Amino acid sequence: MVARLFRLRVALLGGAFRGSVAKGLRTALLYVLLASAAVLLAVVPARLLPVGQERAIVDVIIGTIVLGGVFVVPFFENRRNLEPRQFAQFPVGAGAIGVSLLVTSIVTWPFLLLLTWFTALVVLRPEWAQAGWIAPVALVLAAILALCGVRVVSALSKLLAGARNAGTIRTVGVVLLVAFLPVAVFAAATAFGAEGSAAAASTAAAAAWTPFGAPFGAVTLAASGEQGGALLHLAVVAAAILALLLAWFPLVRFSNQRVDRPVAPDAARAGLGWFERFAARPAQVIAARQLTYWARDPRYRVALFAIPIAPVVMLVAFAVAGADLRPLSLVPLPVILFLLGWSQHNDVSMDSTAIWEHVASGIRGRADRAGRLAPVLMIGLPLALIGSSITVTILGEWRVLPAVIGMNISVLLVACAVSSVFSVLMPYPATRPGDSPFSQPQWSGSGSGLAQTLSMILALLLAVAPVWYAIIAIVNVEFGSNMWALGFGVGYGVVVLLLGVVIGGRLFDRSGPELIAVTQIFD
To answer: Exposed, middle or buried, 362 (CB in 10 Å: 0-12/13-18/19+)?
Structure first.
């Protein structure tokens, strides 16, 4: 089994270059760039930092991030990973399949890139020679940990998400990657700051006791002569590998015995746009439809283009008045996010031609409310994270990044929560599908101004608490207050959002027929 699987792995390695000559050249260039990046990951610390404690700290932190990424990424992206179910029809046991998949995983491009990085570390770290036998043992254990982690996490993702939810999982992974970028920039800025060495040292000391940083912590301790501490770190890695192996073989057995719900042979699998990336569940189907609307309907595009105008006008007015624009750099992004979330306060009227489907099919109100928030959250959350980094860069103070992120995310979530309630509670006429986005339907009643005013005032009042804590943390720059502002802002926003979805869902369940009647009048 192992020999057969080795031949299959080698064929898969070469298969990446098959096809046209241009495709082969692009693939070769991609892997050359990835290998160069792996080497640079070892070269940069060696060039910038002298031999000693600082370089060891950086190696532990980088090693923890790399092995942690190797452990986490397969949960979100595993389309190219072989899985045990593909070999269930062979006359071999689950144990043989599990061993074969583990052993032959060394013949994969990601593992070869990991070996490239390990080799560069060995060559560029002459101080590791003082660690003796512990250095090669630590790197071997790190490689085994990476192999076991990839297999276990990929198998868990296949079992928990399945093929139906694979697109959703990948979308969540992209959002989390975007969310990690400001955190990485904040960590790097803090490490190179005035008090960064102490923070980096404490971070490395904590990371060295995790399975991902323990191999590099063991090498560092062994090179400094602390053999006992190095052995303890190796024990941490060995225990993690043992735990992964104990989980791997039951996962192989369970995945080979599990029978998935069959997919209809005549079901469309391609060409469905966002519907391919979401599962066939009410909230996710509504989310896919809303994303399709936002991409194609000019009414939503006009609203998106109009949202940034308000903060620009505010900044121009302040600049004409002679105000200092550096502290005012905190204003545009929260205003944009607030208006983005608030723009959904009349989404039932915007979707008037399809609201009857939700009521007629018995979809729960919570699913309707949650699904409609997908476009705003998928646009707003990355915008909040990336825009916060730009804001603190203009402000010139990276230490307030957590407070700025907490403020921006809370404003977005609070506005979305209020919109989820008011779009059901007080709908008013909106531009009909297919009409010009600049037209306004005639309506003899009142309510549009009242709904807009009340929803905006309520959203502003609910956003006061997280914004207040963020301002305190920004004025008094302290690590503790900034982390509290981040935690409170995100937690407060999530709680308010959940309450808004639940309350809006209950209102939707109770007033479904009335909503149909009202939206038909608008049409």
So the answer is: exposed
- The b/e string for 473-510 (b: 16+ C-beta within 10 A; e otherwise) is bbeeeeeebbebbbebbbebbeebbeebbbbbbbbbbe
Tell me, what's the pLDDT at 361?
Answer: 77
Judged against a pLDDT cut of 70, whether residue 82 lies above it is answered with: yes
d(CA 435, CA 299): 9
Alpha-helical regions (H) of 77-133:
94-104, 109-124
Q: How confident is the model at residue 18 (pLDDT cuts 50, 70, 90)?
A: confident
Band the pLDDT of 345: cuts 50, 70, 90: confident
Average pLDDT of the residues in 123-140: 87
- Under the banding of pLDDT at 50, 70 and 90, the label for residue 145 is very high
What's the pTM value of the predicted model, to 2 decimals?
A: 0.65
Please choose, from the candidates 420, 413, 415, 379, the residue with its C-alpha nearest in 3D space to the C-alpha of residue 492. Answer: 413
3-state helix, strand, coil in the chain (%, to 5): 75, 0, 25
Of 423, 427, 428, 407, the residue nearest 484 (C-alpha):
407
Tokens 């039951």 belong to 250
Query: CB-side exposure of 442: number of CA atoms within 13 Å?
Result: 0
CA–CA distance, 188 with 347 (Å, rounded to integer):
41
61-96 as b/e: b if 16+ CB within 10 A? bbbbbbbbebbebbbbebeebbbbbebeeeeeebeb
Residue position matching structure tokens 């991609």? 30
Contact (CB, 8 A) for 347 and 372:
yes
Residue whose C-alpha is closest to residue 107's, from 27, 13, 217: 13
Q: How far apart are CA 303 and CA 196, in angstroms?
A: 43
Which of the four pLDDT bands, split at 50, 70 and 90, describes residue 236?
very high
- Cα separation, 204 vs 64, whole angstroms: 9
Residue 58's identity, in one-letter code, is: V
